[in-house]
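Structure in, sequence out. Go:
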């Protein structure tokens, strides 16, 4: 019930503000409903609609009179929404912010994502009916930020973000076109008067296109945002050059656009990440040092996506001690974030395994394994295999390899790298059960297989488990020699 969701997230001050509004309202049933539900929530009791009806109307509930309660609930919801928006406007001094944006932001603060999405869709439908393109642009931007911040990382997520951004751009074009056409009405009116006085006057042409590139070249703020967009379609050294120019423009732009103050972090982070992509891990580490120093200087906590990329760079660079230190330092925040939690935990477990701290790895390994997304579930199964292998528990090593192999062969996962890892670990298992020359031959065969697999599956080359396996393979072959 929407009414319960609203009352549940109200702070003490917001509740009192709502009560004051309800006390002055002509809808006297609203106050009774509010107090009844609030009391139930405080006691942690479930709401019984029949009891609510009797408490409010003094008679037993009947299906044919249900419309009466529904109508009063709708009115109460509207009153509470307006009251909360008025409270926030005064409290946060956001006098020019649109009601719907204030309301949606407040719901988002509660982390009640299901309620947020439901409200957002209802507001979007209402704005579409009104053809309010400016409002649709604002709530579209808000929904984009919500999806980007809270939804799990996947290719589908970014496809959704791309479609949403395209839709919002369409709304913005509508807004700009409407504003320009209204200004042209004023301009043409003035020209009509001039023409009446001076017949030689020539009417100007209607504006049909805007040369965005020319405008952006002439003004730092517009150039900044133009380059921000361009930076996402570039790669490597070319992208780094553009990002460095953005950092040079940043101090000029932030003076007049203070809302971009925090963009210095993703700009530096993007340069670090680009160095990571071109395997310049040391240079990436230098930029991460600058990022965290900037966070400290501005008294901010680092964003988890920055921490995640930093951990990825540390892991690639083989700095496993620092991986563990960084994750544990941010562990509380990591566990609350579904976007990066399981991948971070994977890095933690594999770092412990890389350092030979097997029991520490096991402590982290078995927590909520069945709650993980499919790809992470398979990654953690592979970590179990490594754990049993390193602790020389041959029976469980054999059982886990066999179980994993059967699972991915019979039910192929989305990531092909897991299938190839199943083949590889099965051959490693076979090698461990052989002696001397036969073992070495099997290991050489496995090495050839991995090279072949990497040619068939590009993701495998950078897959951390595959990296561990290749290092272990080299160790075993050296030992055999």
């Amino acid at each position: 019930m929407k009414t319960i969701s609203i009352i549940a997230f109200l702070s003490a001050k917001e509740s009192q503000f709502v009560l004051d509004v309800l006390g002055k309202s002509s809808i006297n049933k609203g106050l009774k409903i509010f107090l009844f539900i609030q009391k139930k929530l405080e006691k942690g009791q479930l709401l019984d609609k029949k009891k609510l009806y009797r408490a409010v109307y003094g008679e037993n509930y009947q299906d044919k009179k249900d419309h009466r309660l529904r109508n009063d609930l709708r009115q109460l919801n509207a009153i509470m929404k307006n009251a909360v928006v008025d409270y926030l406007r005064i409290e946060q001094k956001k006098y020019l912010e649109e009601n719907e944006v204030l309301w949606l932001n407040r719901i988002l603060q509660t982390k009640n994502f299901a309620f947020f999405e439901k409200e957002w869709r209802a507001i979007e439908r209402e704005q579409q009916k009104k053809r309010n393109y400016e409002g649709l642009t604002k709530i579209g931007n808000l929904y984009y930020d919500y999806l980007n911040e809270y939804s799990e990382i996947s290719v589908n997520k970014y496809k959704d973000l791309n479609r949403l951004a395209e839709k919002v751009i369409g709304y913005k074009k509508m807004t700009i076109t409407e504003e320009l056409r209204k200004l042209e009405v004023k301009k043409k009116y003035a020209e009509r008067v001039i023409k009446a006085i001076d017949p030689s006057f020539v009417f100007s042409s209607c504006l049909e296109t805007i040369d965005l590139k020319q405008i952006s070249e002439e003004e730092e703020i517009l150039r900044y945002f133009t380059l921000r967009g361009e930076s996402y379609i570039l790669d490597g050294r070319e992208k780094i050059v553009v990002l460095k120019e953005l950092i040079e423009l940043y101090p000029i732009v932030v003076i007049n656009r203070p809302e971009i103050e925090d963009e210095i972090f993703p700009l530096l982070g993007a340069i670090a990440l680009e160095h990571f992509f071109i395997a310049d891990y040391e240079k990436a580490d230098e930029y991460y040092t600058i990022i965290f120093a900037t966070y400290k200087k501005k008294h901010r906590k680092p964003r988890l996506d920055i921490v995640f990329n930093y951990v990825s760079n540390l892991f690639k660079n083989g700095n496993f001690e620092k991986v563990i230190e960084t994750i544990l330092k941010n562990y509380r925040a990591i566990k609350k974030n579904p976007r990066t939690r399981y991948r971070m935990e994977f890095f933690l477990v594999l770092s412990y395994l890389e350092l030979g701290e097997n029991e520490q790895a096991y402590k982290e390994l078995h927590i909520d394994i069945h709650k993980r997304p499919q790809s992470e579930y398979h990654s953690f199964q592979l970590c179990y295999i490594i754990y049993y292998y390193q602790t020389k528990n041959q029976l469980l090593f054999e059982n886990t390899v066999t179980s994993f192999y059967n699972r991915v062969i019979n039910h192929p996962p989305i990531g092909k790298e897991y299938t190839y890892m199943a083949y590889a670990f099965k051959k490693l298992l076979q090698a461990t059960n052989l002696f001397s020359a036969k073992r070495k031959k099997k290991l050489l065969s496995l090495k050839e297989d991995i090279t072949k697999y990497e040619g068939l599956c590009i993701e495998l080359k950078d897959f951390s488990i595959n990296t561990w396996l290749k290092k272990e393979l080299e160790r075993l072959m050296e030992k055999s020699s």
